[in-house]
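User: Structure tokens for this complex, please. No commentary.
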Amino acid sequence: MTKILMKGNEALGEAAVRAGCVHFFGYPITPQTEIPEYLVKRLAQVGGTFVQAESEIAAIHMVMGASGVGVRCMTSSSSPGISLMAEGMSYIAACELPCVVVNMMRAGPGLGGILPAQSDYHQATRGHGHGDYQVIVLAPSSVQEAVDLMGLAFELAERWRNPVMVCADGMIGQMMEPVEFADGDGRGPPMPPNDWALGVREGRRRRIVNSLYLSPEELLAHNRKLKAKYDAIAATERRSELDAGAGGYDVLVVAFGTMARICRTAVDELRAEGLRPALFRPISLKPFPYPELRRALDAIDGDGPVLAVEMSMGQMVDDVRLAAEGTRRVLFHGTAGGVVPSPDDVAAEIRAALGAAVA
Amino acid sequence: MGEIHVAEERCKGCGLCIDACPRGLIAFSDHMNEKGYTVVTFVGERSACTGCAMCATACPDQGIEVWNKAGRQTFENTTGLTERMSHYCPGCTHGVIHRIAAECLQELGLLDRAVGIAPVGCSVLAYEYFNVDMFEAAHGRAPAVATGAKRARPECIVFTYQGDGDLCSIGGNEILHAANRGERITVIFVNNAIYGMTGGQMAPTTLPGQRTTTSPRGRDVESTGHPLRMAELLATLGTPGFIARGSAHDPAHVLRTKKLIKRAFELQRDGTCFTFVEVLSTCPTNWGLSPHEATEWLQDNMLPVFPLGVLKEPAAVAEGAA
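Assistant:
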């Protein structure tokens, strides 16, 4: 395999095609627009479908239509666009249709700005639209990992008949890095056979893709079925990474995506100074790796704290607190608005946290 | 002599068949069915019935089948609809529009590859009635769902069935752009000038001065605008399309509208263009009129605002025909 230098957004588009997704519906928004710009050319080569929708609302419902007739499909957007897709995400999840939604998060709230942020963590993990539904959320921290997670995203979407969000930030989308794509014919696996897709009937009974249940008992049963699925996803699809270092640690840093990468540099610098920080990185934000994080928290030496670092005013830190269940002091450092902390900023925060641990 | 068979359990007692019979051979009976509707019955001389099937054509509930003098069945219920009784109010012409659309799909042999998209509004349950694969879309989004389905499966005949609130109001953007992209889909747009499902609120198509629960003193065009004429609006687009308007208020108009819908499905089948058929429909319940009065109200008030006919032909077809 050879490495190619690619911009994150373009690499994501290529990864989607190689995962066998040749149906794309989307609307331009910075900082993800290179995804549709790449795919309009690439999909023409492979005979796929590209539609520039009139809005993110239309784009997500086009995804619903394509998914409902049984093809692998996706859309991509950025924060304000994801807000508009909230309605469709709820319907698609309710109808149990597979699809992938890329969110290259930018700074909010409102129109906010176009620079990277992680301030849509709550939106991604707590639901975008109405009702008791969940989507699987994967957070890459490099262009290579974004490529790898795109393949996984389609696999999970089809395994669980559920939307999967690849939740990155403008930094991942705009950065150029060397990437390599897995070997294969570049077409991805065939769609698994199913008993739900609409289309040419060829004698089978008709099918309905629907989320309306006027009977409260039936709607409760539908909600219970979905909940059982989400519980199974939470039990089997947690992904995370712990760098505990050698010989124990006095503070645990928790960060995801681009922020985890910056924390990685800070942790390495501090270790070179003889300090003992560790780094825990959730890869699946939903399901959140609570048990794994709890084990890592329990392994902090003494009463050392945990430090959540985010490009937001504090969102993932809520999940860190849930994992800790009051057993650790939970510290937070965050920026927002598109200001990306430097490794030195983070190192200073970790030092302070260690100082607090000593004091 | 002809013969009609009234399925009494399906009859909602709307009496539209009574209006439809050119010889006055149908009347209300003296008894009710299980649901409490006073059912219709054949009266008069059997020899007087010609089997013209105008009664069945007007019936919104697939309640009448007809045989002619030669003993040939002249009206048979379509297999394009399920046997399920609709939830529509007595005399509402949604049922008629469902039926003619389903008949067109059946007659063209397209039922096996039709994918329908139900809206939000009175026809939200259309997926229970059309005997084809169906989506139930979010409010107004049916043309977007149709776009995704048709682009992914061009071999399917994809149609949306939408009311005026769904299509003109909340879904205004989706229909405009699906039409402008020239999606090879068929849109059946049912315009009854009011919100039915939520109980009679003003729609974008509500007539000037028309009373609704949110325009209790009549629609004031100064503050709420004029009725949105979606067929005319879409006909202005540069993209080729088939844009037409029919009505379902009496059998003659139903038959003419059926021809428009059939043409739309044929054009989609041939991959020609975007196809859109608006159908004027009655809402006796929210208009506060009897089914009979509602058909007259449509005729007198809606036809002048929403003129019938073909508003736009796809250019290639028009040239070919010339």
